[in-house]
Amino acid sequence: xxxxxxxVEVDPAVTKDPALAKKLEEVCAVDIFARNEDGxxxxxEENLDxxxxxxxxxEVAPGKVxxxxxxx
Amino acid sequence: xxxxxxESKALxxxxxxxxxxxxxVASETEAxxxxxxxxxxxxxxxxxxxxxxxxxxxxxxxxxxxxxxAKYAEVLxxxxxxxKARCVLIEAKSPVAKEYFASVTWDGRRKLPVLLFxxxxxxxxxxxxxxxxxxxxxxxxxxxLPLSERIAKEAISAxxxxxxxxxxxxxxxxxxxxxxxxxxxxxxxINPLARLEDGKFLVLDGHVDMEAEARGSHKALLTExxxxxxxxxxxxxxxxxxxxxxxxxxVDHRGIAGNVVEFDGNLGLVIGAGGGSLTLFDAVxxxxxxxxxxCEIGGNPSMSKVRNLTRLLLSKPGIExxxxxxxxxxxxxxxxxxxxxxxxxxDAGKDPAEAVAIFRIPGSWEEEGFKILSKYGVDYCDxxxxxxxxAGRAVAKMAS
Lengths: 72, 400
Prior knowledge:
The complex is a heterodimer of chains A (72) and B (400).
Chain A: E1 6-10, H1 12-15, H2 18-27, E2 33-35, E3 41-43, H3 56-60, E4 65-69
Chain B: H1 5-14, E1 22-25, H2 28-38, E2 42-46, H3 53-56, E3 59-62, H4 65-75, E4 88-92, E5 96-107, E6 112-118, H5 125-131, E7 136-140, H6 149-157, H7 163-182, E8 185-196, E9 201-203, E10 206-210, H8 219-225, H9 240-250, E11 256-262, E12 267-272, H10 276-286, E13 293-298, H11 303-315, E14 321-326, H12 334-347, H13 352-355, E15 356-360, H14 366-375, H15 387-399
Parallel strand pairs in B: 12-14, 14-15
Antiparallel strand pairs in B: 1-4, 2-3, 2-4, 5-6, 5-8, 6-7, 8-9, 8-10, 11-13
Helix pairs in contact in B: 2-4, 6-7, 9-11, 10-15, 11-12, 12-14
């Protein structure tokens, strides 16, 4: 379920990349990204609407992560 | 946050103010022992936070230890302005020749501390100010410049005190001023400050109020005085609504969306920023509105924090709409607050367009915030609409 205001779309290849998953988890100040036990990426849906649009996730994974403003 | 008399005196003792012999007691036996230690006439004083003890009979005098014990039993159950005594203070009764008044408080208009001094102590200072203004001096002093005894001396001499009394009073009043600043007090008062028959001075009664926000800075002192973190020392105990708001504020460290005070109106307020809460609350009332609450938001609260506060407000019976208003903000994201408010409305089963009377938060990321508000049909305005005018619009909507 996306947030009411923000959705984050991640390239499936990224979710399976433990190194990138770790970076995404580290850069997000509002904990939208987390890692499963096997190191793969998962989105924390309840935090999506906390997104501050800092774009750090976009810089970590250029072209592979999209932040969608659902109100536009 | 008000201190009991015995706590105020413990604070005075730290600054070396002259205090009479005495101690707090919690039983008739202790009262008898305390009076025996003093070995002379004593005053038996109920410890309550409100004034009017003397009129209520909660201050009594005793000449012997047995009489002190009896007076303890008499004073303890007396309810003063709805408040039961926490304990009783037994102090030596002193032979008073003259009573003075000294107080330091905050002058909101001048934004400076003000020292009030009178040579007519022991009675209500309001009465002195009204009927004998020449016996009351008001002296402002800086919180930035170094304090000087000269300020205290001038305040005392301004009501005609000279000679040895001036010399002896000055360090006492000066210590009160230093105490006020050192402990972030909003009131430091001695009344009466007595000159005894032998010419010495003594603090007979005193009150201290500490800025509630300063509790964290003076944790060690409060612990030493036995003041627990859960003691709010407010005029009334917090309501379940206020407690829930405090809980919601405490569970998330990001920003503030709390300090909620419950009122019985029908307009919920989500307000804040740089004194904005007080200004906006007053503006709503000035327009004839009835606030359902006071609160403070700021410091960039998270979406969920604003959401929880909004949901809580809209769950309160009697609240018809909420007004979301702040001063111009630079450190709070308008779009994040907008998300929180709309989420809170939807969580509460309300249409944001109907539930939000006005949204007036200009500042950081306002264009983004206004896009969100537009999508949900919420009435919003920018900084071209004053806080006063925004409050008026909210009140007008309540009537329509």
